[in-house]
Amino acid sequence: MIFIMQEKLHIYIDESGDTGIKFEKGSSEFFVISIVIVSSKDLSELNKNLEEIRDGLLFKSKEIKFSKILFKHKIIFFKSIRRLNFIAYAFIFNKNFCKQYKYIDYLTQPLKELSLSNNSAESIITIDGKDKKMFSNNDIKMIKNLTRIKTKIIFCDSKKSILIQLSDMLAGLIHAVYKNKNGYFETLNLLQHKIKITFLR
Predict the structure, then answer these.
(1) Among 111, 158, 175, 181, which is least packed by CB within 10 angstroms?
(2) Its pTM surpasses 0.85
């Protein structure tokens, strides 16, 4: 998918894992940030398609969350999204080698990477509302500066955004692969044309 300069981009961000480094107390070894991107012209159709997939899995009006649904439902979901109009970036941090302690610290590098490949005129970034408390006003200003284009930032309850749910599902899938959970590597291969994965330290 190629985005043209005049298009407004809609960007949805979610994560899997935690930012803690107390591994002996259960902190995750990896932290994954997933960024889903869709153009304005494709947004309505993508929302509709994702809602149809969700409803087909008997989750009508309910949130699809990687950590909450059955493995068989995850596989059906991922197979169903292969031909939908979006692209995604995933950034994987091995926290054994990281010095970051806050979500915004982890988010900075992915946003820098994104700004280099983003040739749109404007973007709207939507972040899972549960993460709002992690961002100060200065953090919001920094995000806008990093993207280098006109940017609006929204915090949205994931229950109300099927695209935040998509980002959650992708982050969860990639995290599961790096945790060597059975059955997920083959599923990720199905989506290799949709997701660009970058491993960061």
Answers:
(1) 181
(2) yes
